[in-house]
Records
---
Amino acid sequence: MGNAEQIIEGVWLVGGPNVSLSEDATVFVIDFSGDLVMIDTGAGRSARTLVRNIEGAGLDPAKISTAILTHCHIDHIGAAPYFREKFGCRLAAHELDARAIEEGDPVMTAANWYETDFPPTPIDIRFRGEHEILRYGGEELHLLHTPGHTPGSMSLYLDRGGKRVLFGQDIHGPFLPSFGSDVSRWRKSMEKLLALDADILCEGHFGIFQTKDQVSKYIQNYLRQYS
């Protein structure tokens, strides 16, 4: 049996601290009537654990059509080459972070922080707009360009079962010149996320926030810290 948590119907937490390895950012899988979309892939060493967790949720990892990489850091992209090679899924990222992934840049990917390497890995789908929509049957998965932590950081949201679920990885930063961070752009990105009025926030390292009030408080707290 795997270690996975269902957030709402068909949305699963399959990786992250206390789920796979502590070095992993959170990893999610969304089930669109059998077509699976993965959001981030962890730092790499837990790839087989992620597979077990996906299978433990009753899902087939071979049905993952796309792995969306919210930004180029190793704790979010480490297992992307594994999933692309083993299951044939497409890798998607914003064009402003795609170069670091395709070149295996040790600084921009933060692989040097983890004392590891990230192999140059092709990106199959580049997002360029401020707001793009992927459609699966009657549902829409929204992708927002939310720069700040990195130039190509993205957030996603999905409306399902009367709830708006926001995937806002690494809202907390950090903000470093080596990452191409821009706190002023980040503030604008956070205002964009607050305007979504999400019911659930799936954050990159600090868990799941389950009410509109808790989502708002979490984002506002960091806005105050970096005011």
---
Amino acid sequence: MKPSLSKLESHRFAGVSLGGGKTDRTAVAVIEYYPLQRRVFLRGLRERVRADGGASADLQLHTILTETEPGIESVALNAPLQLPKCMRCELECPGFERCEVPEIRWMWDHHRKRVERKRPHKLFTPYTERCSEMFISSELEESFHPPHALGANAAPLAARAVFVSRRLAFPALEVYPKLSIWRIGRALRVSKSHLRFHKHSIDGDEARLAILTALVERGIAFIYQQDMRAMTENNDAFEAFICALTAFLKFRGQTEPPPPGFPKDEAWIEFPKESIVWF
């Protein structure tokens, strides 16, 4: 016999849209999942987390995740949580053309298969990119182009994400919000145009509102009006919520596992399954 669920039983997850450590672009969303009610509640939304006096933005973020919002089971961030293999490797380097490390061999196998399907195909750079980024950019139903972990735009966020996550006592997940938004939106039958342009300065607010409205109308999420307005107007807050929702889906077993043969020590970017079973 299955144990009965308490009316108050819940699980708490956080999502972080990470900005630079010297900016005010960081946003945090905390959601609570009540199994008995079969619904997710947006518990807290914090925009523009920044330094305050002698407290750095990193300390402010850590305090929110560990003290202001206690009981978080996992946090999902929109930034790399592991550096590329070549930057972590301590072996004598023969050059990646001759490397036998599993991650680099996987990259070569993937590259050769891509070349057979599409020419020309640029050679990978294992000191800036990882296996997960290569997989997502070529093996899904749409074309996605996640930034390389040590690419020009992502490198500072990767450094900050690694620094922040190593202090946490609970799991940290890496999320690519654009892909999570696509999979969540398609499961909700939101139009593709809304899913593709959620960050656009002109129509982005309309797209974000459409996605949030679909979650509310389907009875999946409860969101206060002021938070709905904040996420519609601020894409950083919206993506923090999407990251938290991806952490919830990971808990529910509704994110994609790595493909067969994926290197076991390589970071994986969590994203929802194509067919989501919400509850």
---
Amino acid sequence: MSTERPTDTRKVTTLRLTEMKQAGEKVSALTAYDFLTARLIDQAGIDVILVGDSASMVFAGNDTTLPMTMEEMLYHTRVVTRAVKRALVIADMPFGSYHEGADKALHNAIKLMKEGRAEAVKLEGGASICPIVERIVDAGIPVCGHIGLQPQSIHTYGTYKTRGTQPDEAQAILDNARALQDAGAFAVVVEKVPKDLAVRITASLEVPTIGIGAGGGCDGQILVTPDMLGMNRQFQPRFVRRYAKLAEDMHSAFQNYHHDVRAGDFPNEGESYTA
């Protein structure tokens, strides 16, 4: 495992992501919801940090992303952006924040940029939300799209199964990707679709695609950080590679601390102060 620090210290921007696609350079992305994690991710050289509404599940313990509020997203975005120096920080627009028209969507996008200090926002959906994407982009706010499996629509789908396995749905997803690009999106997240479809989408767009559960043909990849760190023992879909086993390490550390306190071994003399 490499311990080298990243050599490219240039600030990552939306333009930089386009340049990376043109150069065939893969984009790395992870989620963050707190200061310490965001700082470590940024220092590791990750290109994009998404303040995801996945915090609803991995941070707040909900079953879906739907309960996430604008106030909660603003809080998480503020603490993440406070930590980041290099990575591009994108904030999810939570469910309900852009579904009541372009005016309210723009208002909430401005809050994430102005109060949260985000550098871009992400919306789920295809052609139907393109007028909203255009309105936000026209205001000078970069927008990242999100197609394929859309977690905010889970009650419509009824399942988290792979999307685009049938020709008609695959074509609709491809059309939605193109529509988002035409509306001004600077990048598109492609979630849980067959790898061949993700390759077609990536080849058809001038803007970069960032895959999650979409195979290796996208211009970049993103994972939910607690999942790739092995903190969630109950959740391991095929597309998640665990780069650590923090659940086991943390459980052991907590048990050892509990034992040392009960045994009177913590704190010892070296961990105590004298007058």
